[in-house]
Here is the input.
Amino acid sequence: MAERTSSKAVVLDGRAASAAIKAELAERVEALKAKGVTPGIATVLVGADPASQLYVGMKHKQSKAIGMNSIQKELPADATQEQVEAVIDELNEDPACHGYIVQLPLPKHLDTDAILERIDPAKDADGLHPTNLGKLVLNVNKPIESPLPCTPRGVIELLERNGYDLNGKHVVVVGRGVTIGRPMPLLLTRRDVNATVTITHTGTKDASKHLREADVIVAAAGVKHVVRAEDVKPGAAVLDVGVTREDDPEGGRPLVFGDVDPAVAEVAGYLSPNPGGVGPMTVALLMTNVVEAAERAAAQA
Here is the structure.
């Protein structure tokens, strides 16, 4: 697809793309059930944080809707390291669970890294286990048979499902976090995608110069409106992934802002909004990782 230079960006609708993915997954789930396998997704929730409860509940609702088995593990906020690790071990051994996540953040008294590293890499629904990230580093050419990071994969899927060809494109990633910033270039530089990547962060001098040279911008810094209209090359594709929450001065619900200033819509050729862009894709690709794990398990049975 050629780059656009019109005065209003085409919206990259993550809700529509995720709905298409879930419809495809429902067919794959039915095919697995015909073989006697029901893909099982699990969540581990420690404590009663309202935002985490809402997010976990949404994942289970969507998973059930496509026919998956939903397993919820909940522990009190004062659960010990040993208690949480015992649940991890239980899910690792449970053949009905093909993939799961530990909802973050965990209470501060727990060793988050030790808990996440205890997850069986084959059941890593987030695709962020050190073993799986290592496989991604080592594998540039061959098909990948391990879970992939959900949000970076969602960014690529959203572009490709809207007909955008990343081959040869210059992508600038804003942010270097473990969830998006660090794994995003690993996926983009695989030969089957074949993009060129620049990473910018708080230590980058003249970040605007790099942004203005980008065909694609993935904004994932978690800094309100860090990408401005004057930073964007006309016609570029811009994906707003970062989130900033601020208290409502009038006492209402917290205000949510993306990394991309709304004025960018007048310059960009394609724009993934926030919310409604990459967010829905993340959940769809989380379920994809679990269905793929179930397919691999069925093939090995």
Remarks:
- The chain has two domains: 37-120, 150-279.
- The first strand starts at residue 10 and ends at 11.
